[in-house]
Specification:
The chain is α/β, with parallel strands linked by helices. About 25% of the residues lie in helices and about 25% in strands. It has two helices and seven strands, in the order αβββββββα. Strands 1, 2, 3, 4, 5, 6 and 7 form a seven-stranded mixed β-sheet that branches.
Length: about 180
């Protein structure tokens, strides 16, 4: 190794070490932000007659926005913007635990594969409706629709998923429910 290649080698090693340290620090900051997140400050958007939700923006496995608020009788339209996604109610009709109001209609878009394809559902009954993406439930691709101005204590969609939930996505449900509860109180 000549002096000049040794210098290059050292310079390169130092640069790599610095980059690794920066990534590690960034990772820590992200964790701290999540831990410190408080749902008390969450504000529910004003109820609208119709709301749009993107499925998988920027190739992510998430709904955007994850929480929407419609008037009673309002409509949510989901648009697939990447890969394969569904919007599927937590309802026994979909072989899922009920996390929608007792007499509410179920819905299931089925897996949508076409980019830009949409699915709509109209919500005739006030309440909290949790739903998931069939292919990505275990990755936390879940959302909540708040209809009207329901009483948080009466909503199956706000019950703690608990140990018997037995499905992926329980952590995301806790987060969504925490926000919705804060938004309704
Ligand atoms: Cu999905």
């Amino acid at each position: 190794m000549t002096d000049s290649t040794r210098r290059d080698f050292l310079r390169h090693t130092t640069a790599t070490t610095t980059a690794t340290a920066t990534v590690a620090l960034a990772g820590c900051a992200g964790v701290l932000r999540d831990d410190e997140e408080s749902y008390e400050d969450y504000t529910l958007p004003e109820a609208s007659a119709s709301v749009e939700v993107d499925m998988g923006p920027d190739a992510s496995n998430r709904f955007e926005p994850e929480i929407v608020h419609v008037e009673t009788g309002g409509t949510v339209t989901w648009t697939n913007v990447s890969r394969n996604h569904s919007a599927t109610a937590y309802h026994p009709d979909n072989d899922a635990p009920r996390r929608v109001p007792a007499d509410a209609e179920s819905w299931d878009s089925g897996v949508i594969r076409e980019n830009g394809k949409t699915f709509s559902h109209t919500f005739e009954q006030a309440g909290v409706y949790d739903y998931y993406c069939t292919p990505h439930e275990t990755l936390g691709m879940l959302g909540s629709v708040v209809v009207g101005d329901p009483e948080p204590g009466d909503e199956p969609g706000l019950a703690s998923p608990g140990d018997d939930f037995g499905r992926g996505g329980a952590n995301k449900l806790e987060e969504l429910n925490g926000k919705v509860r804060a938004g309704l109180e």
